[in-house]
Design a protein that fits this description.
GO terms for molecular function: peptide transmembrane transporter activity. Pfam families: PTR2. With about 500 residues, the protein is mainly α. It has three domains: about 1-205, Up-down Bundle (Growth Hormone, Chain: A), CATH 1.20.1250.20; about 205-265, no CATH class; about 275-494, MFS general substrate transporter like domains (Growth Hormone, Chain: A), CATH 1.20.1250.20. Helix content is about 75%, strand content about 5%. The chain has 17 helices and six strands. It has helices at about 10-40, 50-65, 70-80, 80-100, 105-130, 140-165, 170-190, 210-240, 250-275, 280-300, 305-315, 330-355, 360-385, 395-420, 430-450, 460-480, 485-490, and strands at about 5, 10, 315, 320, 325, 390-395. α2 packs parallel to α5 (about 105-130), α4 (about 80-100) packs antiparallel against α7 (about 170-190) and α10 (about 280-300) packs parallel to α15.
């Protein structure tokens, strides 16, 4: 593989720009999604109430991460990574084109399904091919992923600037810009994929042993039993009016219950019948704790596109001179902070490690969750001004996004790395899937939370934001408090 992209394999440029344009389309569209749904019909929106709009937003963003599980399986067993990336990009582009055409809420949901399905195909598999560029592993592989990560944030930043700007004139121009962005990604992928040589062309399917067939058959039976039990459980909840699956909010709540139950069942099954030795068992317990921490963090962080986006629209003074900045553009702060501070945070960890002071994973998780909570401390005070009838300055949201972004840098890369290191070798792929499920659950919660941010009832917002503060600070403190135990269970994994 020739070197041709910042001293790395030339194929990295193909993947860098494909992911950059895909993230342009995803985050650009996400920046206007809930705003479009809650805008009145007179303003060319869908006129959906905040509660149901938040639930739809949560279901969509949760599906994006959940669909990475079947997307990875299809690539490994049938398509190969290259075809999965190509077809995934096509589905994403079609979805955005559907959203760009004015239509009914039903057609709108169809567009979201296309985007979520395509993202589930593309996102996990493009990262897999990045890893395949470096069969030797090591620090150079980490550097390659860092460059790739910069492409993600560059696309995110540009998308969250341009798409909301166009949507401010016409919602469907914004959705159309997302489609064009994905088209550029597909075009350059098709034209430059030769740089990848034969990487990702064939499925990674290996011959299955008799033992593997028995395990798969057992898992299929257990999955069927669990599915029936879940259906019965949800039916009971519906019967006793705990949830209402005839509404978007009720469906989102039901999906949340399903995700939690399946995850708990999976961990229980692995720990009881997964053939783990005592050391592996303790490491899997740590992964379970990291899953909970990740879900908590993303449930607050991902409110950037839901509750905080609505706050930016309804309660924030966005005037710069005579021009009013579109609300969705404020989300670009996150990507900008990541681009600027990712090298700085990485440098800090290296310097601390040289002095044997580098915090281990549970402490970094605790810090990340607490930083997310501190961001909502800022929003608590901003919400008090808003509840009193005063529009707040954009600096409140900027500072919140800054704290959340530093929290992301403290938690997300560390959690991803720790999961790969802690997982028993035969379960690495599944545990990585669980990491995405944690993000899915967090996104779903973030969407449901947005239902409480209502321009007609601003007085309830301070209490809503303070509930996030209390929950996150206590959770982060617990990670730090129980660090000695978790560190012991982790063994030699930092």
């Amino acid at each position: 593989m020739s070197k041709g992209f910042f001293g790395h394999p030339a194929g990295l440029s193909t993947l860098f720009f494909t992911e950059m344009w895909e993230r342009f389309s995803y985050y650009g569209m996400r920046a206007i999604l809930i705003l479009f749904m809650t805008a009145s019909v007179a303003d060319k929106g869908l006129g959906i109430d905040p509660s149901n709009a938040g639930a739809i937003y949560g279901l969509y963003t949760a599906a994006v991460y959940l669909f990475t599980l079947p997307g990875g399986w299809l690539a490994d067993n049938i398509l190969g990574q290259r075809k999965a990336i190509w077809y995934g990009g096509i589905l994403i582009m079609i979805g955005h084109l559907i959203l760009a055409i004015p239509g009914s809420p039903g057609i709108f949901v169809v567009g979201l399904v296309f985007v979520a399905t395509g993202t589930g195909l593309l996102k996990p598999n493009i990262s897999t091919v990045v890893g395949d560029l470096y069969p030797e592993g090591g620090a150079r592989r980490d550097q390659g992923f860092s460059i790739f990560y910069m492409g993600i944030n560059l696309g995110s930043f540009l998308g969250q600037i341009l798409v909301p700007l166009l949507a401010d004139y016409n919602w469907h121009w914004g959705f159309g810009a997302a489609a064009i962005g994905m088209f550029f990604g597909l075009l350059q992928f098709r034209l430059t994929q030769g740089k990848l040589n034969d990487l990702g062309l064939k499925p990674k399917l290996k011959e299955e042993t008799e033992e593997g067939k028995v395990v798969r058959k057992t898992n299929t039976v257990l999955t069927g039993i669990l599915a029936l039990a879940l259906v019965g459980f949800l039916a009971l909840l519906q019967y006793f009016k705990v949830i209402d699956v005839t509404t978007a909010t009720g469906i989102a709540q039901a999906v949340g219950i399903i995700i939690v139950v399946i995850t708990l069942f999976y961990f229980l099954y692995i720990m009881v019948a997964g053939g783990l030795d005592p050391v592996e068992l303790k490491k899997v317990l740590v992964i379970f704790c990291l899953f909970i921490g990740a879900a908590l963090f993303w449930s607050g962080f991902e409110q950037a596109g839901s509750s905080l986006n609505l706050f930016a629209r309804d309660f924030t003074n966005r005037m710069i001179g005579t021009w009013e900045m579109p609300a969705g553009m404020l989300q670009s702060v996150n990507a900008l902070v990541i681009i600027i501070f990712a090298p700085i945070v990485g440098w800090i960890w290296v310097k601390l490690a040289a002095r044997n002071l580098n915090p281990n994973t549970p402490i970094k998780f605790g810090i990340g969750i607490i930083l997310m909570g501190l961001g909502f401390v800022v929003m608590y005070f901003a919400a008090q001004y808003a509840a009193a009838g005063t529009k707040v300055g954009m600096g409140w949201l900027w500072f919140t996004f800054f704290l959340h972004s530093i929290g992301e840098l403290t938690l997300s890369p560390v959690g991803l790395s720790a999961t790969t290191k802690l997982s028993p070798k035969r379960y690495v792929g599944q545990m990585m899937g669980i990491w995405f499920v944690g993000a899915s659950l967090g996104n779903l919660i973030a969407g449901l939370f947005a239902g409480g941010v209502d321009a007609e009832n601003a007085s309830q917002m301070p209490a809503l934001f303070m509930s996030v503060v209390v929950f996150s600070v206590i959770s982060g403190a617990l990670f730090i408090l129980f660090n000695p135990i978790l560190k012991k269970w982790m063994g030699n994994v930092n």
